[in-house]
Amino acid sequence: MAKTGAKTYYITTMGCQMNEHDSERIAGLLEAYGYVQAEDISEADLILFNTCCVRENPENKLYGRLGEIKRLKEKNPNLIVGVCGCMVQQDVQRERLEESYPYVDLIFGTHNLHRVPALLERAEAGERVIEVWDEAQEQVEGVPAKRGHDLKAWVNVTFGCDNFCSYCIVPYVRGRCRSREKEAVLSEIRDLVAKGYREVTLLGQNVNAYGKDLDSPLDFADLLAEVNAIPGLWRVRFTTSHPRDVDDKMIEALARLEKVCEHLHLPLQSGSSRILARMNRGYTSEQYLKLVEKIKRAVPGISLTTDIIVGFPGETDEDFAETMRVVEEVRYDSAFTFVYSPRVGTPAAKMPDQVPEEVKKERIMALVDLQKSISEDANRSYLGKEVEVLVEGPSKNNDQVLASRTRTNKLVHFSGGPELIGKLVTVKITEITPWTLYGEMVGESK
Ligand code: SAH
Ligand code: SF4
Ligand code: F3S
């Protein structure tokens, strides 16, 4: 229960890991301002939606949720309803919220989330507060984060994106790519380790662009090496890598640095070079496959995951068949698959040859089926093996069962007591599904 007297907040996060980490930072700011987390949305004094606009679905979801919130607002006129994040960076969405949702009291964007206490104070005084910046001002450091986990943490390394893939709204709503100063990143991680964190995931829309905009000549592989050297840290992960920017130095770092885990998220988007060119991805499927081969050779046993879009404008049956072929050849451990969703303001939305919805649906079903069997095969290769896992906590549905992760980022369930949480243990894998590994603990390593 909340402390008597303290106001409470409830944040709903609708987007990617960066969006989730933004929510952690907003929560940190709200708590520093005196709010505490509400147990339930219906009890909160402040309800905040941190939105995503990468596809139409999360946008529709927001409007659905706001419809429900209207009733809470009618019951409690003092309730403050806020919307922030990527969606409000788009003029059309912000205007729609402003005009058609009068009970939304507070709107702020991705570039000014650090202003939340000041904006909230005005909203508390009864003002309708709308403040969205078109671009980031100076880099804001030192925003406290209330993190969702106490062993693993997200750490921003870059904000924004310069790639302008032709389907993607992210560069428009997140701005140009900006790197954090190396010292800011390292000191945040040292601080996390001092608090008991063991794993970090370095976040950026394209982490391989790290450092290109800084004065010091430092690239992502150099940063990885420095993070790797932090005593007390056990595991380092990062996401996302753009295939075009993965160079030999970075592969070598992945192979050599002992804390950097054997997992790479390498979005393919399409297996057809013709579609990749229209997507402005900057590589062909042949180049992508060569890169994968090189990575697999350098880092044996690495797990590869990906993002794929089906139904991009102009995608023919043959283009889609090429995507299926690449998926078969790479044999991803898992894949996030999306139906192409036109985003206003992006070049692809204006392309004339949009693919009919039924065709998109058929294609995604075929792709999901294929990937499911490949994921299952990939997991089957773990049967009988002993793997090192970091124990993260009780599993979601059964507190007698522990949830843990391999270095390759596979979820492993096994039975064990809470004293193992936060430890590295060895588990022998005895059962698998396409999504989860199951095993028995055979030893403790740390
Ligand atoms: N910066 C990351 C992630 C961007 S968003 C990257 O480049 O990999 C996550 C994924 O959403 C993308 O990889 C892409 O597969 C998907 N996506 C982006 N825009 C989309 C759109 N308009 N329709 C469908 N999927 C999209
Ligand atoms: Fe979007 Fe492409 Fe940037 Fe990823 S790399 S965020 S898909 S523009
Ligand atoms: Fe992430 Fe969605 Fe924004 S994917 S960057 S929250 S548009």
Give an overview in words:
- The protein folds into 3 domains: 8-131, 3-Layer(aba) Sandwich (Rossmann fold); 152-380, tm_1862 like domain (pyruvate-formate lyase- activating enzyme, Alpha-Beta Horseshoe), CATH 3.80.30; 386-444, OB fold (Dihydrolipoamide Acetyltransferase, E2P) (Beta Barrel).
- The protein has a 6-stranded parallel β-sheet with strand order 2-1-3-4-5-6, sandwiched between helices. It has a 5-stranded mixed β-barrel with strand order 15-16-17-19-18.
- With 446 residues, it is of the alpha/beta class.
- Helix 11 packs parallel to helix 12 (357-380).
- It has helices at residues 17-33, 56-75, 91-100, 116-124, 170-174, 182-194, 220-228, 248-256, 273-279, 285-298, 317-330, 357-380; strands spanning 8-13, 36-37, 46-51, 80-85, 106-108, 129-131, 152-156, 158-159, 178-179, 199-203, 235-239, 263-265, 303-310, 334-339, 386-394, 401-406, 411-415, 424-432, 437-444.
- It has 12 helices and 19 strands.
- Bound molecules: S-adenosyl-L-homocysteine (SAH), iron/sulfur cluster (SF4) and FE3-S4 cluster (F3S).
- Iron/sulfur cluster binds next to helix 5.
- Residues 15-16, 18-19, 52-54, 86, 170, 173-174 line the site of FE3-S4 cluster.
